[in-house]
Design goal:
One of its GO terms (biological process) is bile acid metabolic process. InterPro entries: NAD(P)-bd_dom_sf (IPR036291), Sc_DH/Rdtase_CS (IPR020904), SDR_fam (IPR002347). Belongs to the short-chain dehydrogenases/reductases (SDR) family. The two termini are 31 Å apart. 46% of the residues are buried. This protein has a seven-stranded parallel β-sheet with strand order 3-2-1-4-5-6-7, sandwiched between helices. The chain has a single domain (12-187, 228-254), classed as 3-Layer(aba) Sandwich (Rossmann fold). The chain has helices spanning 21-32, 44-52, 67-81, 104-132, 153-173, 192-206, 210-219, 229-240; strands at residues 12-15, 36-41, 57-61, 86-89, 135-140, 178-185, 251-254. By secondary structure, it is of the alpha/beta class. It is globular and about 55 Å long. The protein has eight helices and seven strands.
Length: 261
């Protein structure tokens, strides 16, 4: 989507999990706002596809569960662009099962990607931002970071942990003029994550049809519609801009009123 307002002109931004879905939408919005974007994903071909369509971008293959790959991501970004202004920690997975169905390995995998992956990326960019004495870290969290999620304990635990990490890093990095915030979207009911995975997982878990699952989650939203990519990226651009220079340690709901805490 082409926009006249370019609030992030010449910012250097890293986006993880940017090969599809919300991550891709974030990369495209940052590009439209004037940022230079490092598009990273565990699927390198997907990252290349997105980066090729942007004005000034590079693609990197990054598995966020491997710290050395996150460190290399930060190094290459500085080598290419000279600095890092913004990290958007978006990479994530969701496996929804009851506690009696989850294996320890599956549960840990969700924590590894969603929470340890966020830590690894923040750890990789923090020394660079500290040296710059300026930076911005935004985690894509979830409404499940504010309230438990039925038969979805690994995801909720990873997202609750992400808010704790966000607040802790905000305190630790504030003296270096580095802001750390999280965005907690509602249900992106038309996204690839839902269409290709979650409707099926939730229908199986809850004994409902996919259409009944959609209607169930829509009925929980006071504003009566699903969350969209624009809803999320509008808030992200604000947080990434100097307009939010007095905001750190926040976990901002973008849920249509479904979550208000």
């Amino acid at each position: 989507m082409e926009r006249k307002c370019r609030r992030l002109e010449n910012q250097i931004a890293i986006v993880t999990g940017a090969g599809q879905g919300l991550g891709e939408a974030i990369a495209r919005r940052l590009d439209a706002e004037g940022a230079k974007v490092v598009v990273t994903d565990i699927n390198f071909e997907a990252a290349q596809r997105v980066a090729a369509d942007l004005n000034d971008a590079i693609a990197l293959k990054v598995d966020v569960t491997k710290y050395e790959e996150c460190e290399e991501m930060a190094r290459i970004t500085v080598e290419k662009y000279g600095r890092i202004d913004l990290l958007v920690s978006n990479a994530g997975i969701l496996i929804a099962k009851g506690i009696d169905e989850f294996s320890t390995e599956e549960w840990k995998k969700v924590i590894d990607v969603n929470l340890i992956g966020y830590f690894n990326c923040a750890k990789a960019v923090a020394p660079i931002m500290m040296k710059q004495r300026k930076g911005n870290i935004i985690q894509i969290n979830s409404k499940s970071g504010k309230k438990g999620s039925y038969k979805n304990s690994a995801y909720a635990a990873s997202k609750f942990g992400g808010i704790g990490l966000t607040q802790s890093l905000a305190l630790e990095l504030a003296p270096y003029n580095i802001r750390v915030n999280a965005i907690c979207p509602g249900n992106l009911l038309d996204s690839p994550l839902w269409v290709n995975s979650l409707y099926e997982q939730y229908a199986r878990n809850q004994g409902l049809t996919k259409e009944e699952i959609r209607q169930k989650y829509l009925s929980q939203v006071p504003l009566g519609r699903a969350c969209t990519y624009d809803d999320v990226t509008n808030v992200l651009v604000f947080l990434a801009s100097d307009e939010a220079s007095y905001m750190t340690g926040q976990a901002i709901n973008v849920t249509g009123g479904q979550e208000m805490r």
